[in-house]
Amino acid sequence: MRQEDARVNEEDLIGPRGGYVKSYGCQMNAYDSSRIAGLLEGAGYSAREDAGDAEVIVLNTCHIREKASDKVFSELGQIRRLKDERAARGQRTIVGVAGCVAQAEGAEILRREAAVDFVVGPQSYHRLPEALRNADAGERTLLVNFETEEKFQDLKRRPAFSPTRISAFVTVQEGCDKFCSFCVVPYTRGAEISRAAHDIVAEAEELARNGTRDISLLGQNVNAYLWNGPDREWTLAGLFERLSQIPGLRRLRYTTSHPCDMRDDLIVAHRELPKVMPYLHLPVQSGSDTILQAMNRKHTARDYIAMIERVRAARPDIAISSDFIVGFPGETEADFQSTLRLVREVGFASAFSFKYSPRPGTPSADWSEHVPEEIKKRRLQALQELLEAQRQSFNAACIGRKLDVLFEKSGRHPGQIVGRTPYMQSVQVDAPESLIGQNREVLIERLGSNSLFGRMSDQPEGA
Ligand code: SAH
Ligand code: SF4
Ligand code: F3S
Question: What is the rounded distance in angstroms from the CA atom of residue 257 to the CA atom of residue 178?
């Protein structure tokens, strides 16, 4: 018995080491998390599903709203206990904090949490091996400089991020110069910077060779993408034109866009390039011009609506999605009603909406006239009811239509596979797994709570 215990312990000490990365926040963070996992892999820590089995634990954090960053400190408390338990068994654990909380509160994290060995901001992931070596030597590390250029160079050497292999994300732009008065992103991600077009094309080609069919281009302000190449200036539309030529790729998407950066060539791309999907996530935040101005959004409600009309003129079936904030400082009932009016006028296929959360270091956090929590709650509920009704009616309008569905994975039940329509809806179909990675015309038959149900349009009813 005792001998067996000894053997298990020894294996733990000298066996292959594990790495665990937990991701919070936006798709950019999800993309970065897969890069961090790749870097850990390179340093000898292979991916683990469970933090308890890992010698290195990295939390890739989000700072966008108060709740998001609170989660980090409570999670770190649990990790500290895990680290102590493992230490009691003679196992070492290195703990790292990455992402936007790391960037915003790095020194504070090191001061508050003794269990943390390193803090690494979003533009310094390429220096992770250095932080790991320091941790091995018992030293703590804080890496929060903006080194986007170096990070982009490093991206080239890492495998890309594909949640389902069929669909993948590719970062094309990082950072934000807009400074909306509520938002931490310009501080945590730094200035807008675009990746070299040829690197993006190479990454997309590699993905396509490995079976990816659907690529989402990522950026905090992705439609502000602008890269001065040796031959020409590249915009997002130019990238789409080039990526459209890659054999195997069937669908191209992009997120997140700012209304002021919606250039003409991008609108034309929606009309001219069949691979660019008829889906646009274009956050508006509010329908009140007073609030939009206080938010430093640099567009009015009318500007937004006019932009949507132009996009719809180019691509009439396009699904529009957005982000909203309710209870921004000074928001009156009349301002909120303007938001509801804008929502009714535009008609959204889907949307995210949030209660305003004052973020340390942003201008609006220090303003008076904060809206009471009760009112924020009531407004959020009213807005979400309206947006949910619009989502349902957008989905209901698809019943009886034949839509092109790209199958991405197996379904919950045997014999079922799941794919997406061009409008990003998920569809469950009874069909063989061999169709995963292919697209087919599917007749939409009914709505579930979060997805649609359909059958292959060449399949007879009840088959
Ligand atoms: N770059 C994108 C989105 C960035 S963050 C854009 O320009 O729209 C995603 C969303 O979080 C934002 O669109 C906004 O709706 C929300 N958000 C950002 N800061 C917030 C805050 N302080 N309180 C509540 N919601 C916030
Ligand atoms: Fe934040 Fe505004 Fe930049 Fe979007 S555009 S990331 S909301 S500052
Ligand atoms: Fe959050 Fe940073 Fe993304 S604050 S939403 S992880 S850019």
Answer: 12
